């Protein structure tokens, strides 16, 4: 988070709390709950959905945070939330799908070559 704030200018240090909540807390919790809920039924699907939906959850929370900070004059927070969400959806939906697929590939490689560590 500090790397993103300081070197990549993702909002700077003034938004570190908001970024920490959306990326490190909300996305992680959603991913964890999805994986735990589905892993015993279908591990591949659980990994895919945990990665993809966790990524999208981050941007839903970010859209809400931005909507609170910049409410629309003609529609309020909800109109801003929808607008920010639509802007993020253009890039984040394809990236979330790719992230879900790539996470499955990586987990399959880890399972194949590091079975003991993955089970632990």
TrEMBL record:
To which species is this protein native? Pseudoleptotrichia goodfellowii F0264
The record ties this protein, via Pfam families, to: CbiM
List the keywords (alphabetical).
Answer: Cell membrane, Cobalamin biosynthesis, Cobalt, Cobalt transport, Ion transport, Membrane, Transmembrane, Transmembrane helix, Transport
Q: How does it sit in the bilayer? A: Multi-pass membrane protein
Task: Give the matching InterPro entries.
Answer: CbiM (IPR018024), CbiM/NikMN (IPR002751)
Record's subcellular location: Cell membrane
Example GO CC term: the record gives:
ATP-binding cassette (ABC) transporter complex
Give TM regions: 16-35, 47-69, 81-102
Entry keyword Disulfide bond: no
GO-annotated biological processes: cobalamin biosynthetic process; cobalt ion transport
Superkingdom to which the source organism belongs: Bacteria
**What name does UniProt use for this protein?**
Cobalamin biosynthesis protein CbiM
């Amino acid at each position: 988070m500090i790397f993103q704030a300081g070197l990549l200018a993702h909002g700077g240090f003034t938004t570190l709390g908001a970024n920490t909540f959306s990326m490190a807390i909300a996305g992680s919790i959603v991913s964890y709950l999805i994986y735990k809920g589905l892993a015993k039924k279908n591990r591949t699907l659980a990994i895919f959905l945990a990665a993809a939906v966790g990524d999208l959850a981050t941007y839903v929370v970010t859209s809400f945070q931005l909507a609170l900070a910049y409410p629309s004059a003609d529609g309020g927070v909800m109109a801003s939330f929808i607008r920010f969400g639509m802007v993020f959806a253009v890039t984040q939906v394809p990236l979330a799908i790719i992230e879900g697929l790539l996470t499955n590939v990586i987990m399959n490689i880890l399972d194949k070559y590091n079975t003991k560590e993955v089970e632990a």
